[in-house]
């Protein structure tokens, strides 16, 4: 009788709770990595756009042309940076999901092995 109450049910040992936890873990770490990368990307984008505008000014471009080209460059650079941030955030989230799932499944198997 004691053995039957200690045996895990088939629904709790299926691994679904571990999958849900791993997905939540991956989402959190993906968002955190995107936030950190965004903080760095903002500074890099500013420095890069200032460098480009200074180089264009040294080439003899008039101020109005610098403003127009500066706006175009900022939009282009920002779009490129955002695409990279989204890809890297998804990549980190996917890695965290896979690693978290296997760690949680292994821990669950160890707990089940210790209980029997």
Automatic annotation (TrEMBL):
Keyword Transmembrane: yes
Organism superkingdom: Eukaryota
TM spans (from-to): 20-47, 84-104
Keywords for the protein's UniProt record, in alphabetical order: Membrane, Transmembrane, Transmembrane helix
Record bears the keyword Membrane: yes
Listed name of the protein: Uncharacterized protein
């Amino acid at each position: 009788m004691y053995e039957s109450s200690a045996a895990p049910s088939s629904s709790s040992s299926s691994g679904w709770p571990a999958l849900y936890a791993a997905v939540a873990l991956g989402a959190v770490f993906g968002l955190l990595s995107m936030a950190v990368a965004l903080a760095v990307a903002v500074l890099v984008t500013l420095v890069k756009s200032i460098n480009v505008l200074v180089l264009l000014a040294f080439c003899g471009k008039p101020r109005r042309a610098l403003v127009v080209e500066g706006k175009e460059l900022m939009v282009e650079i920002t779009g490129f940076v955002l695409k990279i941030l989204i890809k890297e955030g998804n990549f980190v989230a996917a890695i965290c999901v896979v690693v978290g799932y296997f760690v949680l499944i292994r821990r669950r198997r160890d707990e089940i092995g210790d209980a029997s």
